[in-house]
Specification:
Blueprint: H1 7-15, H2 17-25, H3 31-56, H4 60-77, E1 85-86, H5 89-102, H6 106-129, H7 141-158, H8 160-164, H9 173-183, H10 189-208, H11 214-228, H12 256-283, H13 301-317, E2 324-325, H14 327-335, H15 342-356, H16 358-362, H17 367-381, H18 384-393, H19 395-411, H20 413-433, E3 437-443, E4 446-451, E5 464-469, H21 478-495, E6 503-507, H22 516-531, E7 535-539, H23 543-551, H24 554-558, E8 563-564, H25 567-580, H26 607-613
Helix pairs in contact: 2-4, 3-4, 3-5, 3-11, 3-14, 3-15, 3-17, 4-13, 4-15, 5-6, 5-12, 6-12, 6-13, 7-17, 7-19, 7-20, 10-11, 10-17, 12-13, 18-19, 19-20, 21-22
């Protein structure tokens, strides 16, 4: 920022990157493609968000209000030039379940949804203050695959009543399925035909013409069938007339107990909404501009928290429900060659027109048709190919996806979010607690030191063990480090009793962090080795690790002379020490200094010969 600009202006520009881009870099040549993309996205968005309103159990026009304000505010505050923000299936399902747990009164749904949006905004802004943008990384790919598939099952179960016309009750999947089995005989076949027919038509249109607004055409066909075939006489229910017009901003009125419940639910929704935003933004980058680096198109994780918070404030004040980003709408915008968020503003104009004329439209729209749209959205969340890919890659990844899938279905979508995050943390902790390790040696013709398990012809100096533990040291793996080191020492003594270990050098290049428990474990490790006549040293130690070890007394215990910046320096020190202390070993041969050069040729061919002769 140029010097002299007021801090308030700088703060405003930092919180409105979308507006800043549109006012400073927008080119008139982009207007045509942005308008075409806006019309295409609006045609797809309108029936989609109205169907998502049914998931939250708010009036369908509420979905249009929500989409309108979300798109406008993200165009101003968002960092992505093409991301389509608005109602999204999984977030709508989260919100609907959270509200249903608080109140079953239809009159309370809208204020509770609006209050939930404001709570999500509060969590997003708090996350920005604490710089918690990295929270999205806690949801690994296997957990997202399983979670989305579980959410799809819950979405379908929630639409059973609308698709069949039967009186299906219950908010949880077990209760819904039990109720559906009891009333399955009440299925209204015309209603089921409308729902499944809409779903099939959307799939067919998407198959033959992916660029067409399949959801809109499917709903229009259902409305035409309702009007021409007089399906109302056969029990097919419609949305009915709804109030039109734009709502005025106001704070929702809720009780303290309701607010307390929403705060807990809002945290899970904020995590998932933010994760969706970041994943879709990374998966669908904007087209590069001239002289633009790839990194310039990346969305700032911290700034995106502010944008999502601002969007939810506006949505909450105007009576909407929580939102996220839509991968399908974003992909459609890119396919239509959208350049900037102007396409979202064009879509907003279309939404306003629909809102002002929403009443007459709803009188002909079957509820089952919106259920068919939800069914189509759910089918896009189940990615069989991703499950197969996880199974091919690693069975543990596949198992994590299945556990998350079952947990989301059985315990609910909010619990599924918590389970997904918990499994992510446990997976990360397990990897850190039981990391890969290696004994290092020299490989003929190859520079540096390498894992002897990877190279059968690797050579080591007699009496010297160079050991690498490839993880930060903390309480969960400190004991494992001691056990593994002792196992290596025992194996070395058993394999080469004539050359027992005299030094053990711990290569700490991967040990960038240490806590007090791990520091104490190093003290105990030094004591264990000293009792066996083995000196402990640290090599490739960095200042970030040296300082906490010094404060914990580990440096004084080991000795400054046993700390080495590089592996060659440590080897040279051992060779000099071994030459000065020949009486400490049964082998009178003195190891020779290694040559750390790619062209250096060993004087022996095997590790056993090297140990027998005391040379490389």
């Amino acid at each position: 920022m140029p010097e002299g600009e007021h801090w308030a202006l700088k703060a405003f520009q930092a919180s409105t990157p979308g507006l800043t881009f549109l006012t400073t870099r927008y080119q008139r040549s982009w207007l045509r493609t942005d308008m075409i993309a806006g019309l295409a996205v609006a045609a797809y968005l309108i029936p989609q968000v109205m169907a998502y309103s049914a998931i939250v159990k708010v009036p369908p026009v509420t979905g249009l209000w929500t989409a309108l304000f979300a798109m406008v505010l993200y165009a101003i505050m968002g960092g992505s030039r093409v991301l389509s923000v608005g109602p999204e299936s999984t977030i709508a399902l989260l919100a609907g379940l959270a509200i249903a747990d608080i109140s079953q009164d239809p009159a309370r749904v809208v204020p509770l949804a609006a209050a939930l949006s404001l709570v999500v905004a509060g969590w997003c802004l708090l996350g920005r203050m604490l710089r918690l943008g990295v929270v999205a990384d806690l949801l690994s790919q296997p957990l997202l695959v399983g979670y989305l598939a579980g959410a799809a099952v819950l979405m379908v179960s929630g639409q059973l009543g609308k698709l069949t016309g039967a009186a299906v009750e219950g908010e949880e999947i077990i209760a819904q399925i039990r109720s559906f089995i009891e009333v399955i005989g009440q299925t209204q076949w015309p209603t089921l035909a409308v729902g499944l027919g809409t779903f099939a038509l959307i799939l067919f249109i998407h198959w033959i013409r992916p660029s067409w607004p399949a959801a809109l055409l499917g709903v229009l066909a259902a409305m035409a069938a309702y009007a021409t075939l007089h399906l109302g006489d056969h029990g097919v229910a419609v949305v009915g007339e709804v109030p039109s017009g734009i709502p005025t901003p106001q704070l929702p009125v809720i009780s303290g107990a309701e607010l307390k419940a929403l705060v807990i639910a809002g945290l899970g929704i904020a995590i998932m909404a933010y994760s969706d935003n970041m994943l879709v933004a990374r998966g669908f980058p904007a087209e590069p501009l001239p002289d633009e680096r790839p990194s310039d198109r990346e969305v700032d994780p911290q700034a995106e928290l502010v944008a999502l918070g601002g969007v939810h404030i506006g949505v909450g004040l105007f009576g909407g429900f929580p939102v996220s980003s839509s991968g399908s709408r974003t992909a459609l915008a890119l396919a239509s060659r959208a350049q900037t968020q102007v396409y979202s503003l064009v879509a907003c104009v279309v939404v306003v027109i629909v809102i002002l004329a929403a009443g007459p439209i709803m009188e002909w729209m079957p509820k089952a048709a919106l259920g068919g749209v939800v069914l189509y959205a759910a089918s896009k969340l189940v990615r069989i190919a991703d499950f197969k890919r996880l199974l091919r890659f690693r069975r543990r990844e596949f198992a994590l996806a299945l556990i998350t899938l079952v947990g989301t279905i059985v315990f609910g979508i909010l619990a599924g979010v918590g389970l997904a995050v918990t499994l992510s943390l446990l997976e990360m902790g397990l990897r850190l607690a039981r990391p890969h390790d290696a004994v290092l040696g020299r490989v003929p013709g190859l520079a540096g030191m390498h894992d002897v398990a990877d190279y059968p012809d690797a050579q080591t100096l007699p009496g010297l063990i160079v050991y690498r533990f490839e993880a930060p040291l903390f309480f969960a793996n400190a004991g494992e480090l001691r056990r593994r080191v002792q196992r290596v020492v025992d194996q070395e003594i058993a394999a080469f009793p004539q050359d027992p270990p005299r030094w053990l050098l711990l290569n700490v290049e991967a040990n960038t962090e240490v806590d007090i428990t791990a520091a104490d474990a190093l003290r105990q490790l030094q004591g264990d080795l000293a009792a066996q006549g083995i000196r402990l040293g640290l090599t490739r130690i960095k200042r970030d690790l040296y300082e906490p070890l010094r404060r914990a007394g580990v440096v004084d215990l080991i000795g400054e002379d046993m700390l080495f910046p590089t592996l060659p320096v440590a080897e040279e020190a051992y060779v000099e020490w071994a030459a000065a202390h020949p009486d400490l070993t049964q082998d009178t041969a003195v190891p020779q200094p290694p040559q750390d050069r790619p062209s250096a040729q060993p004087t022996v061919a095997t590790e056993a010969e090297a140990r027998a002769r005391g040379t490389f």
